[in-house]
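Researcher: Let's do a round of design. I'm pasting the structure tokens now; please hold your answer until I've finished.
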């Protein structure tokens, strides 16, 4: 693309992204938009209680099954629908949920809705993990402005003149879903791809994967820290009966151990846990509770779980404290890169500079 066209594309992209400042925003699952002073990022939940409750709320609202049809983990603050590919096509599971068709997650383009394949140094192609994909998507949704940490989510259908709060708008959406997501001249053409393409014009192609790779270790460590800290706090406070003789809901404990296993399954063996991985210890605890079920054994399992969580907290150290600083630095670098990108387009190097290079 000629330099003048690149400059024009850059400004067109920034104008398109800026247009979302005037869009209708709605709260959904996060604290953003729920109160004047409420804010929340899409990266790293404040508490595992938020993760669990939002997972349950998303499942109830959509009818989708956790881990099969949507991804949930403290590394991101909202569940993310898992799109199933079939014969080179893909269908977003939220298309079956009329009440959520306003949401950007219902209209994710292919590159955002699916895990990317990336060629690594040795030439091998590897696919993003679910956690890596979710972190990349969180960055991209925020950078486009489709999610605002203060105001919440952009109402995509409002951008196309459909009012989801009106009976007419609701009927129109329900009819479109009933007809197999077809038959409406507006809904048939809804596409938020241009907003993500605009990011490539501003930051350079592949910026989303790059920023994910740069920041993923920070977010993963912080997510493990949040999960361990907030789980331990609940156990220590006695909400699971660990602090005294209170009755323990065995089913609740088994559900919590199941969540914890999925959250810590990729954590390596830790010296703080005698060289054993958290996932292995959690699996052993779940087996013991399932085999016994006696109240005293359940209480012992909770105490052992609390000790395990303390070991994880020692291993991750001050990951949560480091997160805010690292994230602010990465945002500054991203802004600087965009300005440098534009500067290079507007001020091409002189022939002598090219010759010197």
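Researcher: That's everything. Go ahead.
Model: Designed sequence:
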């Amino acid at each position: 693309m000629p330099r003048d066209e690149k400059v024009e594309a850059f400004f067109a992209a920034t104008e398109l992204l800026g247009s979302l400042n005037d869009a209708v925003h709605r709260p959904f699952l996060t604290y953003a938009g729920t109160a004047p002073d409420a804010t929340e990022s899409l990266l790293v939940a404040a508490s595992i209680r938020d993760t669990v409750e939002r997972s349950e709320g998303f499942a109830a609202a959509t009818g989708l099954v956790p881990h099969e049809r949507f991804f949930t983990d403290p590394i991101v603050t909202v569940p993310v629908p898992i799109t199933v590919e079939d014969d080179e096509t893909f269908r977003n599971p939220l298309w079956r949920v009329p009440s959520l068709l306003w949401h950007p997650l219902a209209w994710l383009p292919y590159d955002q809705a699916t895990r990317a394949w990336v060629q690594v140094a040795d030439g091998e192609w590897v696919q993003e993990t679910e956690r890596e994909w979710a972190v990349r998507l969180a960055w991209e949704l925020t950078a486009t402005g489709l999610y605002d940490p203060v105001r919440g989510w952009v109402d995509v259908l409002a951008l196309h003149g459909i009012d989801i709060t009106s009976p007419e708008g609701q009927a129109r959406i329900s009819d479109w879903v009933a007809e197999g997501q077809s038959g409406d001249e507006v809904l048939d053409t809804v596409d938020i791809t241009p907003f993500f393409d605009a990011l490539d014009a501003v930051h350079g192609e592949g910026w989303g994967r790059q920023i994910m790779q740069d920041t993923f270790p920070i977010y993963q460590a912080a997510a493990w820290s949040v999960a361990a800290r907030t789980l331990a706090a609940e156990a220590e406070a006695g909400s699971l009966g660990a602090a005294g003789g209170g009755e323990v809901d065995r089913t609740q404990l088994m559900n919590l151990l199941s969540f914890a296993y999925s959250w810590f399954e990729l954590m390596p063996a830790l010296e703080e846990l005698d060289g054993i991985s958290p996932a292995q210890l959690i699996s052993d605890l779940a087996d013991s509770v399932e085999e016994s079920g006696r109240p005293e054994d359940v209480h012992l399992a909770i105490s052992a779980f609390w000790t395990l969580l303390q070991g994880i907290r020692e291993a991750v150290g001050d990951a949560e404290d480091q997160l805010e600083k690292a994230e602010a630095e990465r945002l500054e670098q991203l802004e600087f890169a965009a300005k440098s990108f534009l500067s290079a387009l507007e001020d091409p190097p002189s022939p002598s500079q090219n010759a010197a290079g």
